[in-house]
Amino acid sequence: MTKIVNPEQISELLRECAREHITPYFRNLSEDDVQYKNDKSKSKVTIADHKSEAFLTAKLTALLPNSLVVGEEGVHENKSVLDYLQDSEKLIWVIDPIDGTHNFSSGSEVFCVMLALVKNGETQMAWIYDVCNDSMTFAEKGKGTFIDGVQIFIDQTTPLEGSKGFAGYKFVRQVENITINTLRCAGHEYLRILKNEAVFALYSFMNPWDHAAGTFMVEEAGGYVAKWDGSAYSSRETKGGIIAANSQETWQKVKDAIPHEILQKHVEKP
Question: Are 43 and 101 in contact (CB under 8 A)?
Fold first, then answer.
């Protein structure tokens, strides 16, 4: 894969995208620059989301002419774009132009750009660009995860008890002595796990732009990722839930703490 794309070239594209289309709008959005999506989420989308995805789509497909793009905003406009991920031959760029749009639009620095290069449902390379800290995280299949060029490793020995984790749901069967919250930005939550500042993140949604990069990075750094039913995660799937953890032991404890009614709602029955 390194012969197909130069990781540093992609990293520079992400930095260029942020300089031209994201940071100029940070804490500088007009009322007309922010809209709400007309779907169940009713989530915010900004002019920066649209401009950055358009920029990356043009640049990345020019770099790899036969590649396809699955971007958050593109899928919102045309749901059939998700079907690209079923292609077993072509390379697919999965783009989250601004992960943490709510934070971005509110002036919080907890947002990032996420990108994954996928083939046959499996991530081959991934980038998370923490814009405000100008920090680039990169992972390559079989070669590990790197933050600003330094390879990092997840501490698998850190116990769940006494640690931090991320979840949108409050657990009914609480695991004692853990701090659970949400950053409203999956990318930064994955980064906290990679930096050994948290030991798990639990999600009840599986949009590929939210997870194709982060789950891959956690696994390449030595962590453990699986769907709530215990099966392997694939960017081709959009239904179910995911747990990313520093170890399989932590994963199991978190899974066991999910209330039964919530678990049944999100785990598809055979």
Answer: yes
Separation between Cα atoms, residue 72 and residue 115, nearest integer Å: 11
Across the chain, what does the average pLDDT equal? 92
Give the helix/strand (H/E) hosting 254: helix 248-256
Please tell me whether residues 110 and 11 are part of one structural domain: yes
In this structure, is residue 1 part of a structural domain?
no
Beta strand 44-46 pairing with 34-36: antiparallel
pLDDT at 72 over 70: yes
**Model pLDDT, residue 173:** 47
The answer to the question of residue 158 being in a domain is no
pLDDT at 247 over 90: yes
Residue 95 lies in a domain: yes
Which stretches of the chain are assigned E, i.e. beta strand? 34-36, 44-46, 68-71, 91-99, 112-119, 122-130, 135-140, 144-147, 150-152, 164-167, 179-181, 200-203, 224-227, 242-245
pLDDT of residue 170: 59
pTM above 0.90, yes or no: yes
Mean pLDDT throughout 114-122? Answer: 96
Extract the tokens encoding 196.
Answer: 């050994």
Same domain? For 114 and 46 the reply is yes
Distance CA 44, CA 118 (A): 27
Domain with residue 81: its CATH number is: 3.30.540.10
Least confident of 99-103, 179-183, 187-191: 179-183
Both 69 and 191 in one domain: the answer is no
**Amino acid identity, residue 53?**
E
Share of the chain above pLDDT 70, in %: 92
CATH number assigned to the domain comprising residue 217: 3.40.190.80
What is the total count of domains within the chain?
A: 2
Range of the domain at 186: 164-266
